[in-house]
Design brief:
It contains 18 helices and nine strands. The protein has about 475 residues and is an alpha/beta fold. Strands 6-5-4-7-8 form a five-stranded parallel beta sheet, sandwiched between helices. A two-stranded antiparallel ribbon has the order 1-2.
Length: about 475
C-alpha cells in the first residue's frame, strides 16, 4: 500500500518532493476556460489569453477556495439546524441539554424567550434559516445582532457587510467566471465579505446550536492516538465533520444489548472511537468511558489508522474521508459506509444518508454488522510478556504521577522560576527505562494507551514551555504550539 507521504514524494520534481510547478506554486495559472491552461508572470506582465494578470489569477482562485470552504461549512450548519429542529419536536434520540445557552443565544438575536423550550428552539431555527436565504443586498440580521459595533461601521463603509450566505456565495461564484471580475482588489473584497457571512452565519450558529444539543465543551481527560485501537473489540469509527451519527452510535454502544451483540461474535465488546473533526466535536463535549473509548487523530493519520488492522467500521460523514479509503477497506476488510449524501467513493455502493429523524435507526444500521467482525481476539501473551507489560505499566504510571506533580508546581511558580534540573534528569532516566520496556514487546499492546491528554485552560503558555525539556523525554508525547 502507498501512504500519503509516498504520494506526496511522487508529486515532486527533480528528485525534490517539495518542488512543484513554479506557476502552480505561485498561484499564477488558470484552466477555467477552453483557451487555457494559461500561465502568468507579474514581473514580465505576462498575462492569460483573456488578459488577466497573475494577481487576478491568484486572487480568483483564492476566492473559489473560499466558496468551497464556506459552502461545505454551511452544509454542516444546515444539518445542525435540521437536527436541532427535529430534536425540539422530540423526533431524534437527542435532547436540548443547554437550555440556558439556547435562551441567551435566542435573546441576542432578538427572539422572544418567554415561551417553552420547544417554541424558543423552533423560533431560533426559523430565524437563522430566513437569514441564510437573504439576498446579497439584504443585510444579514445575524451579523447585525452579533458583530461588534465598530466592526459593523467599517464593514458598511467598505461595502463588506454581508447579506445571507447563500446570496453571498452566488455573488462570489458568479464573479469568478472568466471575463467577469479579473481585478484582484475586487476579488479580495468579495472574499472578505463572504468570510464575514460564513463566520457569523455558519460557524458561530453551528457551534452554538451543537452546544445546545450536545453540551458545552469542557476540559477533561481523553485517550488519544493509535493506542485506543484494540483488535479484540469491534471498533466503530465515525469520521468527518458532523458528529450527529457519532453521538447516536455512542448512545447505542452504551447499552448492554449492543455490547452483548459484539461479545456474541467473539469480541470483548464494541467501542466507538472518535476520528478527525467529527471526533473533536465529540470528545470536547462528552467524557470517555468503555463505550466511547478515545480519539485517533487528524486526516493525515487516517491511513495509519486503517493499517493498524483494528478498524471494523468507518462511517464517513461530510469531509475528510479520502479517495484512497476503498483500497484500504478492501485490504483490511473494513466496512466503509458514507453517511452523508455529499460523500461518495469509487466502487463503494452502500450508503446511509443522515436524516435527523432516523438518527437512532441509522446508527443501529451502521453498527449492526457484527457478524463480520474480522479482528480475531489475540491469544494471551506469554508469562514473560505479561511481566514486561506489568513493568511497563508501572513505569508509565510513575512517570504520569511525577508529571502531575511537576505541572502542579509549575502552576504555583512565578514566570521567572525554573524546574529543578534533578527532577528533569530523574524523569529522563525513568522514560528511558520505559522506552526499553516498550521495545522488548514484539507486538505493541494497542488496546492500552500509555498516555491521557488533558487541556489545561488555566496553564498559561510561558509556564507550559518550562515543562517542555522534561516532557519531550517521554515516549510518544508531542508538545505542540
Amino acid at each position: 500500500m502507498q501512504f500519503c507521504w509516498d504520494r506526496y514524494e511522487a508529486q515532486g520534481m527533480g528528485g525534490n518532493p517539495d518542488q512543484r510547478c513554479p506557476f502552480c506554486m505561485g498561484g499564477v495559472r488558470c484552466d477555467l476556460c477552453s483557451n487555457g491552461p494559461c500561465r502568468a508572470d507579474v514581473a514580465k506582465d505576462k498575462r492569460g489569453v483573456c488578459g488577466i494578470t497573475g494577481d487576478g489569477m491568484a486572487m480568483r482562485m483564492m476566492l473559489l477556495r473560499n466558496i468551497l470552504g464556506a459552502s461545505t461549512y454551511h452544509y454542516h450548519t444546515e444539518q445542525t439546524i435540521n437536527t436541532l429542529r427535529a430534536t425540539a419536536k422530540g423526533e431524534t434520540p437527542f435532547r436540548i441539554i443547554e437550555k440556558d445557552k439556547l435562551k441567551v443565544f435566542a435573546g441576542r438575536l432578538g427572539i422572544t424567550t418567554s415561551g417553552t423550550i420547544k417554541k424558543t428552539t423552533l423560533a431560533l431555527c426559523d430565524f437563522v434559516e430566513a437569514d441564510f436565504n437573504r439576498k446579497a443586498d439584504e443585510p444579514s440580521h445575524i451579523v447585525e445582532a452579533l458583530a461588534p459595533e465598530e466592526r459593523k461601521r467599517i464593514w458598511k463603509k467598505m461595502d463588506l457587510f454581508p447579506g445571507g450566505i447563500y446570496g453571498e456565495m452566488l455573488r462570489a461564484t458568479s464573479s469568478c467566471l472568466t471575463n467577469v471580475d479579473g481585478y484582484y482588489v475586487s476579488l479580495a473584497l468579495k472574499a472578505l465579505r463572504l468570510s464575514i457571512a460564513m463566520a457569523y452565519q455558519s460557524q458561530i450558529v453551528n457551534e452554538y446550536c451543537q452546544d445546545i444539543i450536545f453540551g458545552l465543551p469542557r476540559p477533561h481527560k481523553m485517550r488519544v492516538d493509535l493506542g485506543v485501537l484494540d483488535p479484540d473489540y469491534v471498533n466503530a469509527l465515525p469520521n468527518g465533520h458532523e458528529p450527529f451519527l457519532g453521538f447516536a452510535m455512542v448512545q447505542l454502544a452504551r447499552k448492554p444489548e449492543w455490547q452483548n451483540k459484539a461479545r456474541s461474535v467473539g469480541a470483548k465488546g464494541v467501542r466507538v472511537i472518535a476520528n478527525i473533526e467529527t471526533g473533536q466535536e465529540m470528545i470536547q463535549r462528552w467524557e470517555m468511558d468503555d463505550a466511547f473509548y478515545g480519539f485517533t487523530g487528524n486526516w493525515i493519520m487516517q491511513e495509519a489508522v486503517f493499517g493498524s488492522g483494528c478498524v471494523d467500521l468507518f462511517a464517513c460523514d461530510m469531509n475528510c474521508s479520502m479517495p484512497i479509503d476503498p483500497a484500504y477497506a478492501r485490504k483490511y476488510k473494513i466496512r466503509l459506509v458514507p453517511v452523508s449524501d455529499l460523500v461518495a467513493f469509487e466502487v463503494i455502493t452502500e450508503r446511509i444518508n443522515y436524516e435527523p429523524e432516523k438518527a437512532e435507526e441509522q446508527a443501529a444500521a451502521v453498527q449492526a454488522d457484527f457478524g463480520n467482525k474480522l479482528s480475531e481476539p489475540r491469544e494471551e501473551n506469554s508469562t514473560v510478556s505479561a511481566e514486561i507489560a506489568e513493568k511497563r505499566d508501572a513505569a508509565a504510571a510513575e512517570i504520569a504521577e511525577e508529571t502531575d506533580t511537576i505541572v502542579a508546581e509549575a502552576n504555583k511558580n512565578t514566570l521567572g522560576e525554573h524546574l529543578e534540573p534533578s527532577r528533569a534528569t530523574d524523569n529522563t532516566e525513568k522514560s528511558s527505562e520505559l522506552s526499553e520496556l516498550l521495545q522488548i514487546e514484539e507486538e505493541p499492546e494497542l488496546g492500552k494507551p500509555q498516555w491521557e491528554v488533558e487541556i489545561f485552560l488555566h496553564l498559561i503558555y510561558p509556564k507550559l514551555w518550562k515543562l517542555c525539556p522534561a516532557l519531550t523525554n517521554y515516549p510518544k508525547l508531542q508538545i505542540l504550539r
